[in-house]
Design brief:
Distance between the termini: 27 Å
Radius of gyration: 15 Å
Helix content: 25-40%
Largest sheet: 7 strands, mixed
Strand order of the largest sheet: 1-2-3-4-5-7-6
CATH superfamily: Gcn5-related N-acetyltransferase (GNAT)
Shape: globular
CATH class: Alpha Beta
Number of strands: 7
Strand content: 25-35%
Structural class: alpha+beta
Order of helices and strands: EHHHEEEHEHEE
CATH architecture: 3-Layer(aba) Sandwich
């Protein structure tokens, strides 16, 4: 059974392991690059999972960490939140891990009182687009590109209107 948990500062090593695996496995899916994060000290990783305005969620099953997602304020502020850094290990793909992470991310955003969740996904990443579509995300019509040296990769913005917390 897949379980999704919110990470805290003491979980920094688990987060680091998955994050570096994500950057190595799928470098064109993230704004950061492996060489930028690989040698960061423990304090860097602890701070990432300790930020009060951020939910870092990790999916695991039977002791195996399978994926992660970050829910944080949107890049342009307001009452919107954003999905960052969603990644599922190759052996977890097609097993509902991504769906579990998206559901947990939405629940975290609703608890925080966010109005909308947004994300950016590479136009070439059709599997991720299908995951987001299943979760109810729709294109906003806005596009951007990855930071250099990958500015040739187009990103599509998708959004989901959130229900109000009970």
């Amino acid at each position: 059974m897949i379980e999704v948990v919110r990470l805290g500062p003491d979980d920094w090593a688990r987060y680091r392991t998955l994050r570096l695996a994500a950057l190595a496995s799928d470098p064109d899916a993230f704004g950061s690059q492996l060489h930028e994060e690989a040698d960061q000290p423990e304090a860097f990783w602890r701070q990432r999972v300790a930020h009060r305005a951020v939910d870092t969620l990790l999916a695991h099953e039977a002791g195996d960490d399978l994926g992660l997602v970050v829910v944080a304020p949107a890049w342009d502020g307001g009452d919107d939140g954003a999905i960052y850094s969603l990644w599922v290990k190759p052996e977890g793909r097609g097993r509902g891990v991504g769906d579990a992470l998206m559901a947990a991310a939405e629940a975290a955003a609703v608890r925080r009182g966010l109005v909308t969740l947004r994300l950016e996904v590479g136009s070439h990443n059709h599997a991720a687009q299908r995951l987001y579509e299943r979760a109810g995300y729709r294109p906003t019509g806005r596009t951007s590109t990855m930071p250099p040296p990958r500015e040739h990769i187009e990103e599509l913005e998708l959004a989901l209107s959130l229900p109000r917390a009970p």
